[in-house]
Amino acid sequence: MKTDCTKKSFTFQPLDSRKVLGAFDGGHISSDGGALLLRAVEDCTNIIGQFADCFTDHRAPDRIEHTVKQLVAQRVYGLALGYEDLNDHDDLRNDPLLAVLAGKADPTGSNRLRKSDRGKALAGKSTLNRLELTLPDANKEDRYKKIVLTEALVDQFLVNVFLQSHKRPPKRIVLDLDATDNLIHGGQEGRFYHGYYKNYCYLPLYIFCGDDLLCARLRSSNIDAAEGSVDELERIVGQIRKLWPKVKIVIRADGGFCRDAIISWCEQNNVGFIIGLPKNSRLKKEISDEQDQAKKIFEQTGQPARVYKDFKYKTLKTWSRSRRVIAKAEHLEKGPNPRFVVTSIPADEIDAKSLYEKQYCARGEMENRIKEQQLYLFADRTSCTKMRANQIRLWFSSVAYTLMQALRRLGLAGTKMARAQCSTIRLKLLKIGACIKISVRRVFVSLSSGCPYKEIFATVWANLQKINPLRC
User: Fold this and answer.
1) What does the alpha-carbon distance between residue 252 and residue 238 come to, in Å, rounded to a whole number?
2) Coil, helix or strand at residue 253
3) Using CA atoms, how far apart are residues 272 and 266, in angstroms rounded to an integer?
4) What 3 state SS string does 62-80 have?
5) Which of 415, 406, 402, 416 is nearest to 372 (CA)?
6) Cα–Cα 20 to 30 A to 452, which of 111, 263, 272, 377?
């Protein structure tokens, strides 16, 4: 039985002699008042607009109430605000603030065509799911699902947003590659058991440049972690070099990507690399003296000891040539812990210790970005039956991350939240209680006067205004 709480009041513990009563009768009040900043970021970057351009709409124009851009915006803003499921939008469609974010001219929904829809400006779950479930060959003759996403355009879009974020070409960029597990719990297409993760999962491939996401490719887990990496690199590097022909590009990855095909491609295409090298008996023997030295230092100091070695190495079968290898002979309380990295960067450009500690170890920051997207922007919500639909869900999460990253880069620059994670930004800056008043000429959003982060909010607004002043 559904609980009817719209007109009911709730009695709570009294405050001295005063009664404490509550009721859902406040009118147009939203818990997401700070999301206006995301709309300002979109106005500066057109991230959502560019993503919407990746869809082709075969619906009859005279029957459309929600444009593709409005549908995409509703879904992306919802994810950024913490609403992970399409089911949430059956309630959110009543929220006039989200309607403002999505660009609805009638944020109260009072002019909807059907009487049953009036008061609900936004789309419900059954309309939004067409963005995910439309088949790639759908056309105007299909009955329901006619909004087709072109996957190649999304690939280009993610790289374009990265390129647009720079006023001038950088001298050097580092592309980080990594694969991770995306657990699945049903009979989804592409479902396989993965021995390392000990579960049924997908194995998506991510490519980042710093905090910027360039690739999010959903894959089955019955493959090598590095599979498809050369194709993705060839596409991304080619697109970057069309605009930045002189930029120096280096790829960085862990030992799961130490494959001769990747390394050889880098050498043939003037792309540098710093890649973890899985240890073996030959490599351990190569640094036996350094490992003994590290052990002696540990026994003398009681602290972790590291000794580095720089040498040339070639595998017995898989590598086509010898390459520079950096070894870290480390001894910890638990015993020896050797690590190896293969690189194209010459010794006269950077020494072994600096390359390992300052260049290679920095790739750990990418793992934080992946966790941020999975945990806080719901990249793991891959519960659709078809793999294509799950890939589209991953891309929606990626666009939400890209929008939040733009807020971090453009709006939060110079504030104490400049490096905050998406969850912190959402909690402190977007989840602000607000009363929405709508008239013929204005939409006035009265933000909570008790918000403890109002000064940061004002700074973000001012930063965004400098980039793209309002044309009032």
Assistant:
1) 17
2) strand
3) 6
4) HHCCCCHHHHHHHHHHHHH
5) 402
6) 377
Instruction: Please give the mean pLDDT across all residues of the chain.
Output: 94
Checking if the pLDDT of 302 tops 60, the result is: yes
Q: Which residues pair with 206 in a beta bridge?
A: 178, 216
Q: Alpha-carbon torsion 174, 237, 151, 182, what sign?
A: negative
Helices 36-45 and 387-406 cross at an angle (nearest 10°) of: 90
What CA–CA distance (Å, rounded) separates 360 from 276? 8
Task: Report which of 18, 109, 43, 166 is spatially closest to residue 438, judged by C-alpha positions.
Answer: 109
**CA-to-CA distance for 303 and 333, rounded, in angstroms?**
8
Q: How many CA atoms lie within 13 A of 5 on its CB side?
A: 9
pLDDT, tens only, 34-43: 999 999 999 9
Compute and round to an integer the Cα radius of gyration of the chain.
26
Q: What tokens were used for 168?
A: 């001038």
Is 415 within 8 Å of 409 (Cβ atoms)? no
* Side-chain half-sphere exposure of 217, counting CA atoms within 13 A: 26
Domain ranges of the chain: 29-151+378-467, 165-376
Phi-psi region of 209 (alpha: psi -120 to 50; beta: other; left: phi over 0): beta
Beta carbons of 448 and 434 less than 8 angstroms apart: yes
List the 443-447 sheet strands across, edge first. 29-30, 434-438, 443-447
For 336, residues 6+ apart whose C-beta sits below 8 A from its C-beta are: 291, 294, 295, 329, 330
Take residue 230 and report the two structure tokens written for it: 């050369």
Helix (H) or strand (E) holding 125: helix 125-128
Q: What is the CATH number of domain 165-376?
A: 3.90.350.10
List the alpha helices (DSSP H) in 175-315.
Answer: 229-243, 260-268, 281-286, 288-301
Q: What is the pLDDT of residues 235-255, one digit of tens each?
A: 999 999 999 999 999 999 999
Tell me the average pLDDT across 331-338: 95
pTM over 0.90? The answer is yes
CA atoms within 13 A on the CB side of 375: 11
User: What mean pLDDT is predicted for residues 298-306?
Assistant: 95
Q: Which residue carries 């972690």 as its tokens?
A: 225
- Residue 284 CA to residue 110 CA, distance in Å, equals 73
Res 472: pLDDT: 43
E-only strand ranges, 117-271 = 147-149, 172-179, 182-183, 192-194, 199-202, 205-209, 212-217, 248-253
Amino acid at site 149: L
